[in-house]
Amino acid sequence: MAKLKLGVLISGRGTNLQALLDAAANPSFPAEVAIVISNRPGAGGLERAREAGAPTLVVDHKGFPDRPAFETELNAVLTDAGVELVCLAGFMRLLTPTFVNRWAGKAINIHPSLLPAFPGLDTHQRAIDAGARFAGATVHFLSAEMDAGPVILQAATPILADDDADALAARVLEAEHEIYVRAVRWIAEGRVRLDGARAHVDGVGAETSYWLPAENGRV
Ligand code: GRF
Q1: Whole-structure pTM value
Q2: Structure confidence at residue 206 as a pLDDT band (50, 70, 90)
Q3: Hey, whose CA ends up nearest to atom 10 of ligand 1?
Q4: Which residues make Cβ contacts (< 8 Å) with residue 33, sequence separation at least 6?
Q5: What one-character DSSP code corresponds to residue 133?
Q6: Domains in the chain, please, with CATH?
Q7: Ligand 1 atom at minimal distance to the Cα of residue 14
C-alpha cells in the first residue's frame, strides 16, 4: 500500500522529527517523511533529516514581508512535495486560519502538556507552579486557535515532588516521541475520524490514552 506522505515542520532540535524518521525507517511503517521544512536555517533537526536521507528545505519567515506571504510559500512547498499530512514538530510560528483551513484534518501538532491545560510556552514550569499532579503530552489536529483542536492521543506522567522543569520535560519528551509516532500510524492506517470538536480512533479502546508510571513508582 502507498505510504502516507508527511511534511514535517520544525524550528529547532527536532527530536520529535527524529522519532518520526526512526519509525519511517521501518519498512512496515505506513508513512514516510516526504519533506522536512524549517523556518530557521540553523535548526538542528535539519541535520537529523539529512542524515536520514529525507529531503529538507528552509523557508525562512524572515525572508517574507508578512505571514500570508510566508504561508503561501509554505503551502506551495508542501503541495509540490505531495504532502498528505503536515506534522508540526516544535514549529515555532503561529499559522493563520487560511493555512489551517487549507490543511483542515490534514495537519497535526504535538504539544507538551495535557491540553486543554497549559497551551502556549513554558508548560512544564507552569504545571509545576500550579501544583498539578500530572503532566503529559498531546497530539491534536491543528485548529485556528493555538494548541487547541481535536485531541488524537495523550500520554500522562506524574509530576514528582522533586521535579524541576528540565526533569519533567525529559520525562514528557519520551512520551511525546511515543505518541507522535503512534498517532501518525493511526492516521496513516485511516483509523482517525474527525467528528466536530472530537477525533475518534477506530479499533482503539483504552489504549487511546495511556499512563506512564514513574520509574520508582512514587506519585
Ligand atoms: C516539543 O516539546 C514539542 O512538544 C513542542 O516543541 C518541542 C519540540 O522539541 N511543540 P523537538 O524539536 O521535537 O525536540
Answers
A1: 0.94
A2: low
A3: 90
A4: 6, 8, 17, 20, 21, 24, 49, 52, 54
A5: S
A6: 1-103 (3.40.50.170), 111-219 (3.40.50.170)
A7: 12
